[in-house]
Amino acid sequence: xxxxxxxxxxxxxxERPAExxxxxxxxxxxxxxxxxxxxxxxxxxADHQQxxxxxxxxxxxxxxxxxxxxxxxxxxxxxxxxxxxxGRDALAEDMARRDAWLDVALADLTETERQVLLLAARLLRxxxxxxxxxxxxxxxxxxxxxx
Length: 147
Prior knowledge:
It comes from Streptomyces griseoruber. This protein is mainly alpha-helical. The protein has helices at residues 2-14, 23-35, 40-46, 51-63, 85-107, 111-128; strands at 38-39, 67-71, 79-83.
């Protein structure tokens, strides 16, 4: 399963326009499109990243007019990120080529296979959003000293 997901992700990535959005930028825009305005910390957590790793991405998206940052009306220390109309358009354009490839690839499948993939996609989203964590490793026994 992992290999199939990785191969499909790579194939879709290969369909990204060279001048298009970076993966991080399109991910930020997609989160805002799906979930609406949110803080940088909430967005980073939803994307399983540290807010510091997205600071430059947020700044570039704001500079390019794809997101806006405003003060949170409930907590003035927080900034709220919001997708702009230009951001919606940029995301749609960025996704269009990959969507076109996917449409052609899906056309080769039967209706049953397409329905199975739709179900699998929902399950993969649930897995990606799962709070499951690996259990902590068991402590190693202390080395025995020789007499």
